Amino acid sequence: MPPVDSTMPELRKDPIVGRWVIIAPDRLTRPQTIRDNGNGLAPDAYDPFLEGNEDATPPEILAYRAPHTEPNGPGWRVRVVPNKFPALRIEGELTNRGDGMYDVMSGIGAHEVIIECPHRETNLSRLAVDNIREVLWVYRDRLVDLKKDSRLIHGLIFKNKGALAGASLDHSHSQLIVNPIIPITIQEEMQGAEAYHRYRGRPIFADMIQQELATGTRVVIDSADFLVFCPYASRFPFETWIVPKNHTSHFENISRQGIDEMGVVLKQTLQKLELALDDPPYNYVIHSSPFDVQEVRHYCWHLEIFPKLTRVAGFEWGSGFYINPIAPEDAARFLRETEVE
Amino acid sequence: MPPVDSTMPELRKDPIVGRWVIIAPDRLTRPQTIRDNGNGLAPDAYDPFLEGNEDATPPEILAYRAPHTEPNGPGWRVRVVPNKFPALRIEGELTNRGDGMYDVMSGIGAHEVIIECPHRETNLSRLAVDNIREVLWVYRDRLVDLKKDSRLIHGLIFKNKGALAGASLDHSHSQLIVNPIIPITIQEEMQGAEAYHRYRGRPIFADMIQQELATGTRVVIDSADFLVFCPYASRFPFETWIVPKNHTSHFENISRQGIDEMGVVLKQTLQKLELALDDPPYNYVIHSSPFDVQEVRHYCWHLEIFPKLTRVAGFEWGSGFYINPIAPEDAARFLRETEVE
Q1: What range does the domain containing B73 cover?
Q2: Do B34 and A204 touch (CB under 8 A)?
Q3: N vs C: which end of chain B shows fewer Cβ within 10 Å?
Q4: ipTM of this predicted structure
Q5: Residue of chain A nearest B274, judged by CA positions
């Protein structure tokens, strides 16, 4: 699927609700090619993310490597490359202009792929804890680096696991999209959290952690530094959040100890979901504060996981209105009772 | 899939962004049963919506029938029945209470199915225009009727077409969910439209129609009373909106002439999408003002159609952040050039 049109991607703003959307029209050619035939990924297909196939990807941006190994050759443990079909481009000037009543920006930003292991493994949860910790370090390092670019104000780290969750390759990987705008979900969370803080005088995530611990019914894992739970108003069955107890607004400010523990907690959470739900497709997204604010009291970064279990998601897709057939208390109990190493 | 638990459904509010979610825990039994095996609908399966199979559904709420035919027997053209697995229940008291820091309401409301034709037809677009008009009349009649219930303040009419869009039966049908709350999408649109009106002194939908007509590149159909176009900041490829030019806030206040024309316009729009995209799964949703406000100047009801073309929707699902690989101008041109009767 090579780019056939070098049109610069654009960020366009919905004038009614203020949602920015990336229009990246050179990612595909003909409308028919985007019809989805329902097939999964071929497990025997060529794997461009395999150690030894480094020339199948654009040159690496970052890699954690064994000493004395060369960039873009074997010897790495976690590797970051530009997305071959980027939704945004890092080169160019950031322009922001009106188009009649509409607003449009040049699609400046970064779209990177984090290859989580050198061998062909589909599940992050099966990697060693130290490997998962290095994946988290890479997330952090890339955010810290891209934050220096004053054109960019928000970084979204996410993972699509499985074809039904949008993955086009089965080799375990995540993605990073760094934007000159704040995604509407993050913006709404920041605003909601700020309003709560103004009204109650306490951070909402701290109150949530306190109530979840007191109630206990929605808790999946309670570790020293993290609470894993199914949120009260879960949109999807088995929606699961990992929230740090020390309440910091920016993921990239995570401590060494935080990453050490998060490696364990993330592995266990994914293992539980995979065991309980028979290796489901899933997405996870790290919600974190924009680059252009310093530490804020009212917001707390966190990771949201959505197993992709039902097609009942039909109309929720565009309507933003959700019907969840599994109570979060039932999902949490089920996950708590699923024993993992 | 019979209900195994008679727990009342609940409406729960996300404390951060204020989004209400329906938790309807009796719709399914075990977590495993909600795994989606990727199969479509069996075209030879028993059809509970067929004329003659009226006893396969709960008793009808409304039907347009031939004279002298009996309720719940043959002779109908369009028929409305309660959803057999309702997300909300019409019986009971509407309670609204705190649950610590959270808010919860009893899941009072209506969840109905509109069976669009007596014979087995999968595509609304293949029905005669008069049949489609009667479907629209039924939408209107049900909203007008449910509006009398002072516990309920918003009605969402939507269609899931095809298994990939969430349909569990292939016989052409739509659904109606009437809520004691306003879905967050509608609330955000109302707020955004009001802010625009305050600032510019003009309704946003009127400005949009004017600019779309002046530009022309995103227009699909321009009829006397409706504009069909691909919105400037389309979230999905081939997202298409049908907006009335006379700018009314409530769908249920549509005129006789409006329905006459909308029948034609909806049929043509769906025919174009189906011809251009090879009969894709799709969802449509009617966005309309809440029951508890009279006609408002700033908002305009409209119908949004989302063909379900890509699985690239992976992480957009939960993140609210969209990457659209097809420019709306390209989609609109393609649809304009697709000739239908």
Answers
A1: 10-25+46-181
A2: no
A3: C
A4: 0.89
A5: A32
